[in-house]
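Need residues for this backbone.
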């Protein structure tokens, strides 16, 4: 096993353990589908659509039904183990939540999704709250723009 594969396996195991602790704190348990969804997301380290998660799960355990994957993604999102982000034209992607919340930006040309600092819009959120009484939650949507590679090609 390469160092890279070993690191992915450790990340997946840590993610599963973090999820199991959150589930226990809620009086819930780690099920087979939950474990395989978390492992699939940890192995990919990417922002995956629900269909991509279904495919990744099927590679690991073909007995896990599509509906179970969707329910599991919803539950794990509610627990904060998985973060969902709306990108593009209504598409939702999922990834394992890290120890720190972060924001996202998506290139309108190539579709690449970048992780941004969670504090990036803190001042904007404070201003919107002060001026309009609106509590901004930018963590579930991706900011749109153009990545460096696509700008170079223009």
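Answer:
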């Amino acid at each position: 096993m390469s160092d890279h594969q070993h690191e992915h396996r450790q990340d997946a195991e840590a993610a599963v353990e973090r999820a199991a602790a959150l589930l226990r704190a809620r009086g819930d348990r780690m099920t087979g589908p939950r474990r395989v969804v978390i492992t699939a997301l940890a192995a990919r380290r990417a922002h995956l659509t629900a269909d991509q998660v279904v495919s990744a799960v099927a590679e690991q355990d073909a007995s896990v039904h599509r509906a179970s994957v969707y329910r599991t993604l919803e539950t794990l999102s509610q627990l904060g183990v998985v973060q969902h982000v709306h990108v593009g034209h209504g598409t939702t992607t999922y990834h394992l939540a890290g120890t720190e919340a972060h924001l996202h930006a998506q290139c309108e040309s190539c579709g690449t999704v970048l992780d941004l600092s969670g504090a990036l819009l803190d001042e904007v959120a404070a201003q919107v709250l002060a001026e309009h009484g609106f509590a901004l939650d930018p963590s579930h949507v991706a900011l749109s723009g153009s990545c460096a590679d696509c700008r170079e090609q223009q």
